Every structure is written in C-alpha cells, then in structure tokens.
C-alpha cells in the first residue's frame, strides 16, 4: 500500500534527521552575537520533490546537478529543470522496504578528471546482504554518456564501497572530492545503545570521515592516510568520533576542512577536521561530555570551533565559507543552516574565537521552510534546499541567497 504524501514525508524527516529535537520551525535562533546580517531568498525551483544536494558541473556549462532523495539527479540549466533526469537509480535502491528512511539516495560527486573520464559517484541505500540489517550504504561509480552531456549511463554502474551497520539507513551523509583528488566519505554512527556505537572504534567505518583513492579497482588507500599499518584499524579512516557529518566542505583559501556534526540530545557542532583527529562522539557531544564516567582519554578529543544547544536550533546543516560577490557583508564567513529554517554565520575574531551570529531572512516563506542542505554554485553563491511545510502538504524548494 502506498503511503499518503504527507505521511511519507513526515517519516522521511524523522529518519533523515532522527537526531533532531522537535521545535517550532518559526522560532528564531539567537546565537552568541547580537550582530544581524540581512539576506533574502530567491526561489530557483519548486519542481523537485525532495532536493537533498546541489553540485556544480565540472565544466564551463554552468549547469547545476540536484539530487532527489527518491533516486534521481536533475539538471538545472539556464534557470530551468531539464525534462529528463541526468540519471535515475531508483531501481538500485532498497526495494523490499519502500519506506523513505530506507529507500534513499544521499548525493553525488564528479571525478576531478570528469572532462576526460566522464566518471561520477553516487551514495545510496541498497538492499542489505545481511537480513539482520535494514540496508547497505553503497558508494557506486557511473559514467556519463559520451554523446549527451546531460545523460548518465545507468548500465555503467559499479560498486566501489559497501558499508553495513545496525542503523545503516540513517548513516549515509556525503561524498566529495578534495583538492588532493581523493574521495572523502562521511558515514554516520549507529543510532543504537551506547555500547553499540562505533564512533571511537577504529575497526569500524561508522562514525567516521573516510578518504580513498578511486583511481584503483575498487579503490586504494592514499599513502598518507593516518592509520595505515595500524593493527585492527581501518586504513580508510581520515578522522573519527562523529555522530553524523551532515555536510562538510574544503575551504581552499584557508586550507581547512570544515564539517557540521549533528548532535543527539545536547548540542550541534562545527569542526575543523584534521588528519587523524578524534572529535569525541559518543563520549563527547559538542563541547560537553555526554558520558561522565568514561575510561576514554578525553584529552585527545578535538573541540568544535562552535557549538549550540537545542535552544538555538534542532539539527545543524553544514554550509561553506562564503567567497561569492552578491553578499559582501558575509565575505570570508562560514555560512550554514539549521533544519528548523534558521541561518547562521561564523566569523573568526581577533582573539581567534569563532563568533556565531544569526542571519535575518527579510522575505521568509509564508509557511515553514525545512532545510536539508546548504550548497554553492560555480560563483560560490549559496543555495538552500529543502521542503515547504504548507497546508496543502510538503513541497520541495530551492532558494538562492542574496543580499537583504
């Protein structure tokens, strides 16, 4: 039996952001500064049901590729959504259980040499091999058509990496290539009792940021990964101790990798992710110890550059450092969102502390806007992806941020 649209999306939100605390989406987050920068929302499209990621084309065509959780990647070209999807992998998603928490695609990334090899990668939930699990996270490689730049070839798909876990349906997050040419993969932790969580277990890929070389079959370990040769440690791990990095980004001017880690009951956090770094989960959440009598060496935990409680937001949505031209007041600031529709920016002050301040939306949607992702285009302008919770039901929406 098919789920009604409203129920379908409610379940989707619960699972995708199951850690997020319930809050009134009309509430305004206060932040730790009284400085207010105003922005406006410019509607780009409302034709995609569940837009979860936007990535730029790796060429000069100015196309934007938008991933829909339902398994399709759409192209926005010249301000219009193209009539046919770039690729439709819905047939590869989990089929036995069609509830939205299981049947989902999380995003894509283009190979750095896409102009020559036409390769791109998708992260999605596939059927489980182990019947005790719900499904399997898959990182798969595909090739675009040589004759049509707007079409990917589904038949070229091949699996690069598979990950299973007790709550793997909620674990997938993001894939992206770094400036070093390697593929970074953020994987969430088990949403299970504390003893089963894997963030501090280096023999598990859950609760980690991974780094692999996809130029070998199926992949290789980059020679400078931090845990190569360490007994009982997965060499794919770049950093660990995360609950769920829901969006990370590499800021080339500062040579920093910034990630937003979704909290559970206490705090949301933003981290500068370092090679081999331990960010504390599940012992630590934000800048607070969640486990009081731990035997772990907490002195090794790296503190976030900023954290906020659920008085200020309910689920962090990572963004990027702004290097565009349309909003000069935000130049050099890390702009990010919260699931409840709030926007923030971080600015490093003279003392080296990262101050957070809310952004005021001068023309908010009439109905609550639930934000899934915060991405950038070729000109480093910022887009917000999510759904509008209207009386008639949920509707996907993508907005471009402009100066207020």
Q: What is the gyration radius calculated from CA atoms? A: 20 Å
Q: Please, how many helices?
A: 2
The tally of strands reads: 27
Class based on secondary structure composition and strand pairing: mainly beta
Report the β-strand fraction as a percent range: 35-45%
Low-confidence stretches: 1-15, 22-31
Profile the largest sheet.
Answer: 8 strands, mixed
Q: What best-fitting shape do the alpha-carbon axes yield?
A: globular
Adjacency order of strands in the biggest sheet:
21-22-23-24-1-27-26-25
H and E string: HEEEEEEEHEEEEEEEEEEEEEEEEEEEE
CATH topology of the domain at 5-18 and 51-318: Neuraminidase
User: For this structure, what is the CATH class of the domain at 5-18 and 51-318?
Assistant: Mainly Beta
Give the name of the CATH architecture of the domain at 5-18 and 51-318.
6 Propeller
* End-to-end gap: 46 Å
Q: Could you name the CATH homologous superfamily of the domain at 5-18 and 51-318?
A: TolB, C-terminal domain
Keywords: Signal
InterPro entries: 6-blade_b-propeller_TolB-like, Glc/Sorbosone_DH, Quinoprot_gluc/sorb_DH_b-prop
Protein name: Glucose/Sorbosone dehydrogenase domain-containing protein
Signal peptide: 1-25
């Amino acid at each position: 039996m098919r789920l009604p649209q409203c129920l379908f999306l409610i379940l989707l939100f619960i699972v995708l952001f199951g850690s997020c605390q319930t809050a009134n989406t009309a509430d305004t987050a206060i932040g730790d500064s009284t400085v207010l920068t105003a922005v406006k929302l410019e509607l780009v499209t409302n034709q995609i049901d569940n837009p979860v990621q936007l990535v730029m084309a790796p060429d000069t065509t100015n196309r934007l590729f938008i991933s829909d959780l339902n398994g399709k990647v759409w192209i926005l070209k010249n301000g219009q959504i193209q009539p046919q999807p770039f690729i439709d992998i819905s047939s590869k998603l989990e089929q036995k259980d069609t509830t939205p928490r299981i049947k989902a695609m999380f995003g894509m990334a283009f190979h750095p040499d896409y102009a020559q090899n036409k390769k791109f990668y998708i992260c999605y939930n596939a059927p489980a091999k182990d019947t005790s699990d719900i499904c399997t996270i898959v990182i798969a490689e595909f090739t675009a058509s040589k004759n049509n730049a707007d079409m990917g070839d589904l038949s070229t798909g091949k699996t690069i990496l598979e990950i299973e876990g007790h709550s793997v349906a909620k674990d997938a997050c993001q894939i992206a290539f770094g400036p070093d040419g390697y593929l970074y993969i953020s994987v969430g932790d088990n949403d299970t009792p504390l003893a089963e969580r894997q963030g501090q277990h280096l023999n598990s890929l859950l609760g980690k940021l991974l780094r692999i070389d996809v130029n070998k079959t199926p992949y290789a370990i980059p020679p400078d990964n931090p845990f190569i040769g360490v007994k009982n440690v997965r060499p794919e791990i770049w950093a660990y101790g995360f609950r769920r990095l829901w969006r990370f980004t590499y800021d080339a001017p500062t040579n920093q990798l910034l990630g937003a880690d979704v909290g559970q009951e206490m705090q949301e956090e933003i981290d500068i992710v370092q090679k081999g770094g331990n960010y504390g989960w599940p012992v630590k959440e934000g800048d607070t110890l969640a486990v009081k009598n731990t035997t772990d060496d907490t002195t090794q935990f790296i503190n976030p550059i900023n954290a906020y409680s659920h008085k200020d937001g309910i689920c962090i949505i990572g963004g990027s450092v702004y290097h565009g031209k349309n909003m000069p007041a935000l130049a050099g600031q890390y702009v990010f969102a919260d699931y409840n529709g709030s926007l923030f920016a971080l600015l490093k002050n003279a003392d080296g502390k990262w101050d957070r301040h809310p952004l005021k939306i001068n023309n908010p949607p009439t109905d609550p806007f639930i934000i899934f992702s915060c991405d950038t285009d070729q000109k480093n302008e910022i887009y917000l992806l999510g759904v509008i919770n209207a009386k008639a039901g949920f509707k996907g929406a993508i907005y471009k941020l402009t100066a207020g």
